[in-house]
Amino acid sequence: DSGVTQTPKHLITATGQRVTLRCSPRSGDLSVYWYQQSLDQGLQFLIQYYNGEERAKGNILERFSAQQFPDLHSELNLSSLELGDSALYFCASRRLAGGFGELFFGEGSRLTVL
Amino acid sequence: TQLLEQSPQFLSIQEGENLTVYCNSSSVFSSLQWYRQEPGEGPVLLVTVVTGGEVKKLKRLTFQFGDARKDSSLHITAAQPGDTGLYLCAGALVGSQGNLIFGKGTKLSVKP
After folding, report:
1. A31: Cβ–Cβ under 8 A, 6 or more apart, which residues?
2. What are phi and psi for residue A34, nearest 5 degrees?
3. Are strands A104-105 and B5-7 parallel, antiparallel or unpaired?
């Protein structure tokens, strides 16, 4: 158990819809990262938050947005969903914003867009 | 273009064999990590290497960071079925916020 909690574990929805994925980081971790994992692209970095503020952006589409709340949990919002958005979405946390620290991953949210 | 290229993509071997997985890039990394991921779970850190030329051992696993900090390898001696999984290398580019860029992974299957 990494200490990172993601909900829901599985989600099936239709194209054009909007979903919200939730992540609770490990206790004491201030930094939250979102990754998308698909078979052809591997694990792609989407966005990072540190103590409530956006720190870095990766390959995140404009249809996607995220935020980190004062209690440090984070949400990833995916809208106008397309078939190609079907993937595993991972949240990871780390104590600080950078450095060489370990990333602790949740078990992921599997999104299927039909 | 993938910043971190891992090879091979798939590897199926018999128990007891040795294997090496490679992680290559044209970019310089301040650190490189290896993770292992099992089905239905998130990646779990195996090791972090920071210094060029660094070698770290974790039981039957040996990790090496290239002298120029552009590449890394993972060598497993006498592989066991429990080593089966997806091995991912991940690097933090020099000057980045420590954000990790992942390779696509090597899917290892060790048959008894």
Report:
1. A25, A48, A49, A50, A51, A55, A93, A94, A95, A96, A97
2. -115, 135
3. unpaired
- Using an 8 Å CB-CB cutoff, list chain B residues near A42: 2, 88, 102-105
Nearest CA in chain B to A5: B42
pLDDT in tens, A27-61: 999 999 999 999 888 899 999 999 999 998 988 99
- Chain A residues with CB inside 8 Å of B96's CB? 56, 98
Reported as a single tens digit per residue, the pLDDT across A14-32 is 999 999 999 999 999 999 9
